[in-house]
Write a structure and sequence with these properties.
By secondary structure, the protein is mainly alpha-helical. It has five helices and three strands. Helix 1 packs across helix 3 and helix 2 packs across helix 3.
């Protein structure tokens, strides 16, 4: 349900700011610190984040897991800060797919008005510029709803988190 959304938001926040605690993430993202803590631990379990060095105490900062480059030890010289963009994209797609599979398996448990989805696909013959315009049009159509994540009071009664996934890519010849 929210797992994909929360984990993606945490990964994006870590990519932007470097390190955060669950409490800091909660304040920035509008979730509870317990929810952020849970998902940070899940991301760590899957090797996506790690605890950042800290001076002890109860503070537990997290960062994107350092990825070792070929021939360099983990976290040693030559390691890159953060996950490469392609790896982040792979993780996001994996979380999207996981959320979709969970939806398919459990949609009969949802309230009646929420038991359908609006999944569709299409093939269009586009130029690279047209593909970019289509993507921009999709982003613009979603813009009025984006701030509801950070502003819960802006959500109308009955609103729920809904995964909005769009993948535009050229089809390669066989």
């Amino acid at each position: 349900m929210r797992e994909h959304e929360v984990r993606t938001a945490l990964l994006e926040l870590l990519a932007d700011v470097g390190t955060v605690t669950a409490t800091e993430a909660a304040a920035r993202l509008g979730y509870s610190s317990g929810l952020c803590s849970f998902h940070l631990r899940q991301l760590a379990r899957h090797g996506r984040v790690e605890e950042a060095p800290h001076g002890g105490g109860r503070v537990r900062p997290w960062r994107l897991r350092r990825q070792a480059t070929a021939g360099a030890p983990e976290g040693g010289a030559g390691a890159q800060e953060g996950a490469p963009a392609a790896e982040f994209g792979d993780l996001a797609r994996g979380l999207e797919d996981e959320s979709w599979q969970r939806w398919l398996a459990q949609r009969d448990q949802a309230p009646a008005e929420w038991r359908r989805d609006e999944a569709f696909s299409a093939v269009a013959h586009l130029t690279p510029e047209e593909m970019e315009r289509v993507a921009d049009a999709i982003r613009r159509s979603l813009a009025p709803y984006r701030d509801r994540e950070q502003r819960p009071l802006a959500r109308p009664d009955g609103a729920r988190p809904v995964a909005l996934i769009s993948r535009l890519f050229p089809l390669l010849p066989e």
